[in-house]
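worker-3 :: picked RNA methyltransferase
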Amino acid sequence: MQERTSVNNPQIKAIGKLQQKKYREESGYYLIEGFHLVEEALKASVKYREILATEAALSRLAQLGLAYDEGKLIKISQSVASHLSSTKNSQDIFMTVKINQSEHFFFSYGKWVLLDDLADPGNVGTIIRTADAAGFDGVILSNKTVDLYNPKVQRSMQGSQFHLNLIKADLPDAIASLKAADIPVYASLLDPAAKQLGDFAPVAQVALIIGNEAHGVSPEIAALADEKLYIPIKGRAESLNAAVAAGIMIYHFS
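worker-3 :: tokens ->
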């Protein structure tokens, strides 16, 4: 087993840079942290380069009874674990996972969520996790939506990235492909022409467009939708959080 005790080790420096989008794109790998994410990754048999963990964390990993490549284990010091961690309370275990996003897509069935330029990592991760819980097939992220491999998105997804189809795409192209497969596309927005969510019956296939936290669904994308819908506000709040609104709609159509 390899061992890394210094934060100045070239390999550790390179892995630490995976916290930044630029280096994730250059290397083709991203970093996940914590036992739950590592466990979900191993269960999903994802491609990974190495598992890094302190001695105590390696002992716990061995007790999980999961299959992993012992040749890819690296024992690290507590100082290295603290250096790599993006949280205050690290679980001292990390994995470098291969980025596996197809640039090509074809929709023939299913239930999908489309994210139109969402900026908040917590919202994006929560929506993906909710779509997973509700049995949806996948989530399509616009090119300007926050990076899927952002550490905050990873923590919010809680491993759901290993259960769903996650696609980064130009939304007009994705919507055209969904429509070609006879999958109805509904946009969530406040609009005089929009209908209440309750007016829609659950359907076998659907695609739901969720808009940016500040600006909502863009007019260009909204114009491509088959229908526009909204969630009635019964109290005095002006609007719902994007992830909350998405969750209500996702479960309505699940």
